[in-house]
Amino acid sequence: MPQNLSEMPQNLSDAERQARNCNTAMKTLSSMPPSLCDAQKQARNCGLDIPKLEALLAEIEPLSEKYEILFYLAATGLYSADDLAEMFNHSSGKNLNADFNKNLGSHLKLYLDLDDSDRLGITSLRRILFKKGYLLDINDDELVRVLPTRYAENSQTEQSFTVRQN
User: Fold this and answer.
1) Which of 77, 122, 124, 155 is most deeply packed, by most CB within 10 A?
2) 135: which strand partners?
3) Inter-residue contact 18 to 47 (CB < 8 Å)
């Protein structure tokens, strides 16, 4: 849950602004890894629920700051394994994926209640966090109510027209 309501997008344009902020943050990031605070800020700008993620990470045995930063950056869904490998001066994306799985992924699988057959890696992390409810709900209730209203209006319009056969 956001710490205050001003952090939650209020409508679609806020969600769009949030996505733009997310993309801008990615482009402005140098090849050096950001601080933990900056990685969390980037994740927040991409719609992640930071307090819930902090609680999840607290359940896992103590992680180095490097892996916490890696977790938040991977959770944004903006970076490939190769991008992160370059950022962290790792030999390759393939090796970084293996390290991620060994140091973080295997523990996350337990706390996220994933099957052994489910893969949890750098590229799948955001999708899994989304499925498990770790992203903020950015739907505007007013926009959600539009569909049933339009459906009712369309049904009435269809009933007023008669089909003529030749």
Assistant:
1) 122
2) 48
3) yes
Token couple for 130: 């989304």
Tokens of 79: 């970076």
The sign of the dihedral angle between the CA atoms of 82, 84, 86, 89 is negative
Which residue shows structure tokens 């140091």? 103
Alpha helices in 6-145, H assignment, sequence order: 12-28, 36-45, 50-59, 65-76, 81-87, 93-100, 106-111, 125-131, 141-144
Go through 9-20 and write b for each residue having 16 or more CB atoms within 10 A of its CB, e for each that does not.
Answer: beeeeebeebee
pLDDT of 22-75, one tens digit each? Answer: 655 554 445 678 899 999 999 999 999 999 999 999 988 788 898 899 999 999
C-alpha–C-alpha distance, residues 3 and 138, integer Å: 15
Question: Can you say whether residue 62 is alpha, beta or left, with left for phi > 0 and alpha for psi between -120 and 50 degrees?
Answer: beta
